[in-house]
């Protein structure tokens, strides 16, 4: 009888660790915090902007709906310039769709240009980015189109003479 009691006690002692190991769950959590510098920042109001945007096709006008996003802009020591880093089009593997990107009503290209002047950017402001396909699509332009666009914003220091 004594041997049976010891065996049962040992089993009861080990059993909870086996049971709890089977019930463990793990979750990997990736955390990012973007804290803007008080001198310069250009960031979209919607933190999810640019992750999975969709331009819907209008069959009547044969155009894609534009994307619009408001950005918070501030540079306390000068103006803000912007330019495109690479091509700006959607592509389905054989037929491109040209995209027009503007920021604060300035059409962007590969050359840096002023999008917010010194006086406006110093206190901070909101500016709109618009991405559009300005040319109606042809009947040959069908299928799934994708594209990646990179806009670079430069903090241009104030020029004092």
What order do the SSEs take from the amino end to the carboxyl end, as H and E? HEEEEEEEEEEHEE
Number of helices: 2
* Uncertain stretches of 5 or more adjacent residues: 1-15
Give the rounded overall mean pLDDT: 86
**N-to-C terminal Cα separation, in Å?**
100 Å
How many DSSP E strands? 12
Structural class: alpha+beta
Beta-strand portion reads 25-35%
Strand order of the largest sheet: 1-4-11-8-9
Sum up the overall morphology in one term. flat
> How can the largest sheet be summarized?
5 strands, antiparallel
In short:
Residues 1-21 form the signal peptide. By secondary structure, the protein is an alpha+beta fold.
Write the layout of secondary structure elements.
Blueprint: H1 2-23, E1 40-44, E2 57-58, E3 63-64, E4 67-75, E5 78-84, E6 89-91, E7 96-98, E8 100-103, E9 106-107, E10 113-116, H2 118-121, E11 125-132, E12 151-157
Antiparallel strand pairs: 1-4, 2-3, 4-11, 5-10, 5-12, 6-7, 8-9, 8-11
Question: How would you portray this structure in words?
Answer:
Keywords: Signal. InterPro entries: Fimbrial_CS1-type (IPR007540). This is CS1 type fimbrial major subunit. It comes from Pseudomonas hefeiensis. It is built from two helices and twelve strands; from the N terminus they run H-E-E-E-E-E-E-E-E-E-E-H-E-E. A five-stranded antiparallel β-sheet has the order 1-4-11-8-9. Strands 10-5-12 form a three-stranded antiparallel β-sheet. Strands 2-3 form a two-stranded antiparallel ribbon. Strand 2 and strand 3 form a beta hairpin. The longest helix is centred in the first third of the chain and has 22 residues. The N terminus is likely disordered.
